[in-house]
Structures are given as structure tokens and as C-alpha cells.
Specification:
Elements (H helix, E strand, L loop, with lengths): L1 E3 L7 E5 L5 H19 L2 E7 L8 H13 L4 E7 L3 H10 L6 E5 L4 H8 L7
Parallel strand pairs: 2-3, 3-4, 4-5
Antiparallel strand pairs: 1-2
Length: 124
């Protein structure tokens, strides 16, 4: 399941809990991302993963990739917040091969992640 989190107007923020499906991406994340692009012509994205990565269905990962590709040139900043070292390492490496800035954060650094993703200074 995906929950929408409170965030500044230039950010979309979500929390993953339990099982995450393609439908979660299609009905919650994709419309919010589309709306943000229509408003500010870029994507500042925060994703708090509060579930095991194994709880994401294969089709959820595909939908995630589709949203990323569909908005390929619009990514500004994306923060992935999790305690999974694997996900943090992947996120940090991913930022070297795609447009925009991608950064992984530990859960205890949630406030820092939100500050960074909204364009806060001093964290680059």
C-alpha cells in the first residue's frame, strides 16, 4: 500500500507499507507525479520505504520504471528513505546514469531527506 505524505508544494512524498502493487503506482503515485510536473515542470520525489523490498510485486517495479521513463527529463531530486543498504546503494549509483539527483537516506534521516529533496542547501 502507498500513503501520500505531507510535503512542501514542490515535492511529492509517499510511504510504502505492506504489499505494494502496480495499482498503487497507477492510482496514487502516477497522478501525483503528473500533477507536480504540470505545476512546476519538474519532479522532486520522496519515497519512504517502510516495508521489505520483497513486498513490492514485480508489476510494481515495472510500473515504477514506467513512471521514471515517462518523465525521464523531468526528474530534479529524488530521495529514497529506507534502512535497506542495498536500496540506498542502488539509489546513489542510479543518480550517475539518469538526469536529476538521486540520493538514498536512512530512515532516521527523514527530515534531512525532505529538506534536501525540496531544494534545501548544504546537503549536496
Amino acid at each position: 500500500m502507498i500513503q501520500v505524505l505531507n510535503a512542501p508544494k514542490n515535492v511529492v512524498a509517499f510511504r510504502a507499507l505492506g504489499e505494494v502493487t502496480a495499482n498503487d503506482y497507477k492510482t496514487i503515485i502516477a497522478p501525483a507525479v503528473k500533477n507536480l510536473v504540470e505545476q512546476i515542470d519538474e519532479i522532486n520525489f520522496l519515497f519512504l520505504i517502510d516495508t521489505d523490498l520483497e513486498n513490492f510485486t514485480a508489476t510494481a517495479w515495472l510500473e515504477d520504471a514506467f513512471i521514471g521513463l515517462k518523465n525521464f527529463g523531468k526528474w530534479n531530486r529524488a530521495a529514497i528513505v529506507t534502512n535497506s543498504e542495498r536500496a540506498i546503494s542502488f539509489t546513489n549509483a542510479f543518480g550517475y546514469v539518469v538526469p536529476g539527483n538521486f540520493r538514498g537516506f536512512k530512515k532516521e534521516s527523514y527530515d534531512q531527506a525532505l529538506h534536501w529533496v525540496q531544494g534545501g542547501a548544504g546537503l549536496d
